[in-house]
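tl;dr need the bound structure. longer version: we got a ligand (zinc ion) that a collaborator sent over and nobodys looked at where it sits. i said id run it. heres the input, straight from their email, havent touched it
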Amino acid sequence: MTTFDFEKPIAELEEQLEKATSIAEKGKVDMSDSITKLEAEIEKTKKEVYSNLTGWQKVQISRHPERPYTLDYIQGICDEFLELHGDRNVKDDKAMIGGFGTIEGKTYMIIGHQKGRNTKQRQMRNFGMANPEGYRKALRLMKLAEKFNKPVITFIDTPGASPGLEAEERGQGEAIARNLLEMAKLKVPVLCFIIGEGASGGALGIGIGDRVMMLEYTWYSVISPESCSSILWRSWDFKEKAADALKLTSDDMLKNGLIDGVVKEPIGGAHNNPAEIFATVKKEIKRLTKDLRALEVDDLVMQRIEKFSHMGSYHEI
Amino acid sequence: MSWFKRVKEGISTSTKDKKATPDGLWYKCPRCKKTTIKEDHVANNYVCPHCEYHHKIGSEEYFHILFDEAQYKELYDNIISGDPLEFVDSKPYTKRIEESINKTGLRDAVRVGVGKVDNQHLVVACMDFNFIGGSMGSVVGEKIGRAIDYAREHKYPVMVISKSGGARMMEAAFSLMQMAKTSAKLALLGQEGIPYISLMTDPTTGGVTASFAMLGDFNIAEPEALIGFAGPRVIKETIGKDLPKGFQSSEFLLEHGFLDFIVPRTQLKDQISTLLYMLSEKKTRQRKEKIEAAKSEA
Ligand SMILES: [Zn+2]
């Protein structure tokens, strides 16, 4: 498992614990005292480390290679899932997946960015960077959900919309813009979960929801800290500073009224206990859908539009 | 007829400009290097008569070009930027805003005007590139949102003239959410059958392209404008080679199906006017009668 620099104190203690346990298992020395002590120390250190994370450290966790991706959530949450492919125009974008899934007898349309685990997969998934056909596939599936009155769930995890010749030729800007407008008036409940990286328009393109929830150790902003650093300070070296300045963490986003809630993760991040995060997210889906289903459709849409209409910071003089 | 009127207005504007401009009587085109008498250049809507280079202009100039007798009412000019993130890079964001206000005489990167185009009401939100690269922060989102609300309330068509480098980084996620906000407002406008014209000018990129600029009932552009989602530099770095000539130009977008038409600035008012007439049958009838009357007079 990948550990970050700031996790070293924990890793070291865990190593000691492992040694102590193996000695104990060999049965020669009674280690129970030091094992208990080490376990307590690990808990304490974890709490210390993970409750004082900087913006940049949270960005690192959001990109942890073992972190669950969209298809992992689907597998962990749904009883059944039927993937649906293609935008009916150009092709099937592998960086954006979607389909109908059932959760405890109810059907949802689930859509999300998809990253790959190994080199080959990463390439196939284009690192979770969708092309215009990905956004158009997502929209097609959302309209399908609307037609059959199923709630929409999106899982957001992208370093950005794909930049490239073909993306521009096929109208990346138009595709994202169209999704923003169409999602705003979708006549079914829309839940969005930022499960990893929420980079800019590429994230927002499936991010117009009645409830937008960020998992605890994720980030959401208009630009990545690295790119922000390179533009504002003309160097990649100020990513920590940029991460702080952008106020991109779940806590900051909630405080600024730009998201609706934070979903608590297992200590140290979702990858430390996938089963736990799947259970939490599943519970949230059920709770939020129930709230939203209680609204009249017109009110649901109007409240969604009103919510985004009120985002901004300005003065009237 | 309307064309003559505008030339005259142009001349009167240019007299005013002349006094304010120290470098005198001549405009030198940065592309073909040929010179034009300044007032002729202004009368030609800041388009080089030799090579049709469209000089970058701001909201004031567009309002003068579009609105009858250059008469319009400015709306929501009392809105100025906050500093939600207390952002500091090479200088504090508040200082940057203050300096930009002092330097440009503008309050942010968009102005909203309502007036008449050949006697037809039109709300225009026009971006100003001079103000922090025409970047979209909360003020831009709010003013465009209100321009759309105003159009809905009065049942006037609305036009947004885009000219922007994209997001305003100093407002980070607040800037991002202006894409959502303006698009949501356009969703409401669309439900009421009120026309929305999006004019893209050089440059229109990033979050502006990926929201209101691409959502027009009519997406139109000035010739040879740079229009795209990702910036050319980013794409070049990603693909590791030079971009094809004309990539992300207005002509490229027209060819790929993302624009309804390209309009030279010298024909902008006439084309907008024609479009507005066509969308209102009553006015189309009136216009037809006028044209026939003019013909029989001749
Ligand atoms: Zn020229």
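gonna send this back to them w/ a short note. Chain B touches chain A through 62 residues (CB under 8 Å).
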